[in-house]
Amino acid sequence: MSKFGLRALPLWAALLPFMTFNVCYLVAVSLEHVSACIPYLTGCTSISSTGRIAPESLIFKAGALPSAVIIALFWFRCATFLQVGGQAGTWAIALRVIAVAAGSSLVLHGVTLGLSDAPYPALRRIAIDGFALSSLALQVLFVFAYRPMRSDATRTLFRWLAVLCLALPALGIAAEVAKWVGAPRHAANNIAAWNASAFLCAYYILVGRVWQRHGFCSQFSITSGGRATSPSE
Fold first, then answer.
1. Cα(20)–Cα(56) distance, integer angstroms
2. What is the CB neighbour count within 10 angstroms for residue 18?
3. Strand partners, 2
């Protein structure tokens, strides 16, 4: 029987990509590779632009690639959490399949960033869209699957998870409306992307709090037969 610590996994899933993007932006600004601004408010540069030129490109790849693995593991643990809580195995299977797609998309984006020759820009666009859609699907699936499990201690957390599920499409709609009324296209898209990344990181942390309230955060066990068990078993 092998045991894995879970307490820090949602925190790593949130902080590693968040710190990677923001550190790369600060480095890029200091080297005058991108404009100085508050990208969450003005969208002066995209997230990808902070990792296209060395040395910040090295920091970006060093953070993005392990982030992809950690995020995929996070969703795999979410699937186990649902199984331990008695939810149907189809929810867990769906989460794990989409988690692989999300992690693979983030890896593809990281390895193609900075490459301008065809077909890399197209692959990078596929990767960005794939990660965004996969992340939204994972968020929504988890909320629907967790709904029957919520307790009095997690009702507020559940509401915030539901709100964050709406944040990504709301940001996309807001960006399209802003462009329709005359806002610069790239700035509107960049603002949406920066804030979406922050909301996604907040979602991971909230799920970690849900795990804690259910006593799932310290460890879970995998028996030799592969059956997931809770710490109390």
1. 10
2. 18
3. 222
146: domain CATH number? 1.20.1070
Would you mind telling me the total number of residues written for the chain in this entry?
A: 233
The answer to whether the bond into 121 is cis (omega within 30° of 0) is no
Six-digit token string for 166? 């709406």
Tokens at 216, concatenated: 């799932």
Q: What is the number of domains present in the chain? A: 1
- In DSSP notation, 153-217 reads GGHHHHHHHHHHHHHHHHHHHHHHHHHHTT--HHHHHHHHHHHHHHHHHHHHHHHHHHHHHTT-S
Read off the amino acid at residue 132. A
Q: What pTM does this model have?
A: 0.88
Residue 227: how many CB atoms within 10 A of its CB?
10
Q: Do 56 and 50 form a contact (C-beta atoms < 8 A)?
A: yes
Which residues constitute the domain of residue 199? 2-229
Query: What amino acid occupies position 110?
Result: G
pLDDT in tens, 111-158: 888 777 778 888 888 999 999 999 999 999 999 999 988 888 899 999
